């Protein structure tokens, strides 16, 4: 099993500092980054609070055109896993695998890559926090051409 670490967002750390909490247990400073091996419980609350949600519980249908505009931090970073649209703008900063895959697949389908890396049930853990909508099938530019590269 590979080494994983969670990069703690500076906004999250500033919010903790404002409340006099300091660094979470197990967090260490590595150069300009603050990291931890396990996500602190309040980090999950922070991600949930800072990821926009639709009111009423029903997931809206989002068009491919809408999704394609969410490819940077100014507009929010969305990815598609199968028919689910995820807002990963805040989460990408703490993802153990880094931000590069979110940058590459922003506004695109990445279900094939997601399933190739993550064990079953991984999406279920984050679904309530990150899923913001549904979409019709969206082509995966790598899977469709038989490309075996994940990234």
Automatic annotation (TrEMBL):
Domain Cytochrome b5 heme-binding, residue spans: 59-136
Recorded superkingdom: Eukaryota
InterPro entries: Cyt_B5-like_heme/steroid-bd, Cyt_B5-like_heme/steroid_sf
Name of the protein: Cytochrome b5 heme-binding domain-containing protein
């Amino acid at each position: 099993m590979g080494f994983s670490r969670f990069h703690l967002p500076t906004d999250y750390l500033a919010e903790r500092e404002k409340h006099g909490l300091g660094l979470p247990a197990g967090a260490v400073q590595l150069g300009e980054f603050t990291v931890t091996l396990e996500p602190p419980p309040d980090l999950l609350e922070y991600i949930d609070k800072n990821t926009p949600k639709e009111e009423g519980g029903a997931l809206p249908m989002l068009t491919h055109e809408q999704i394609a505009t969410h490819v940077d931090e100014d507009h929010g970073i969305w990815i598609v896993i199968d028919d689910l649209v995820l807002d990963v703008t805040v989460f990408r900063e703490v993802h153990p695998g880094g931000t590069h895959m979110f940058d590459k697949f922003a506004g695109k389908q990445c279900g094939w890559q997601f399933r190739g890396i993550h064990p079953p049930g991984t999406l279920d853990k984050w679904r309530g926090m990150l899923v913001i909508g549904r979409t019709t099938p969206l082509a995966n530019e790598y899977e469709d051409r038989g490309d075996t590269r994940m990234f």
